[in-house]
Amino acid sequence: MIQKLISNIQKTNAPVVVGLDPMLSYIPPQVQEKAYEQFGETLEGAAEAIWQFNKEIVDCTWDLIPAVKPQIAMYEQFGIEGLKAYKKTVDYCKEKGLVVIGDVKRGDIGSTSAAYATAHLGKVQVGSKTYSVFDEDFATVNPYLGTDGIQPFLDVCRQEKKGIFILVKTSNPSSGELQDKISEGRPIYELMGEKVRAWGETCMDGDYSCVGAVVGATYPEQGKILRKLMPHTFILVPGYGAQGGKGADLVHFFNPDGLGAIINSSRGIIAAYKQEKYAKFGAEYFGQASRAAVEDMIKDINEARMRI
After folding, report:
1. How buried is 114 (Cβ within 10 angstroms: 0-12 exposed, 13-18 middle, 19+ buried)?
2. Pairing relation of β-strands 16-18 and 129-132?
3. Is the dihedral of CA 127, 130, 136, 142 positive or negative?
4. Whole-model pTM?
5. CA distance linking residue 152 with residue 297, whole number of Å
6. Which of 129, 149, 239, 281 has its CA at 20 to 30 Å from residue 195's CA atom?
7. Which domain holds residue 193?
8. For residue 262, what is the domain's CATH number?
9. Residues with a known catalytic role
10. Structural domain tally of the chain?
């Protein structure tokens, strides 16, 4: 699957991923009102608004981007109806040829970890039949439980030709409370980077592994260190835009071949119409505002890549 991601990046010349993390506060009034007219102010109505919002953004940006990253918590908060909207979003994006990174941050051990891997990347057995459930291309994974929590995902990745991105150095301000602590004379995020590299060596697909890492754009110096520690690891980089990351900070996340990283922006893209820069589009044309924001993001990042 990492080769499909690379192919999409090369085809679009856009190492970016749009985070489909919808909150009702991001969804324009006319989209919400139409959904509520059909389903009422119910969980089903909220899920319909989310689905229509996502669809418009995908329709306006799919030809510019290689991948999307829906954050499952934004859907789970609306219960079963929200999960239906999540699944519709995943399926629609795959129909458009986009790589789907399920931002699910699962992490457990044994049969529980195997069940998570099956739900998001594998196939579940029902009598004589098998079914893909959420069927994302990649899933994000929390490695805090160690190899016991990662191995079931590795097994499914090899079997189904899927991939994972493992949390290494996250973009949030308090990430250093644990990730920067010193153990054996080194910060924990470095030790985790070495574990990701070792896990990845068991799941190679060409020059890159199907086991990637999550490293926040808000920590460029740590990103520089981790890039050297994990030369064959694709890095998913959250924190661009709304969290403060910008193209100039990102040059060290890429390898000399110009690959090796994909940069995520979520509300900076999907709620672009709320920004002064894109206010001319208004709420009515929120999808076009998202398209303009994607175009600006691609330009910013590609200018940074040229400095490698």
Report:
1. middle
2. unpaired
3. positive
4. 0.95
5. 35
6. 239
7. 2-305
8. 3.20.20.70
9. 105
10. 1
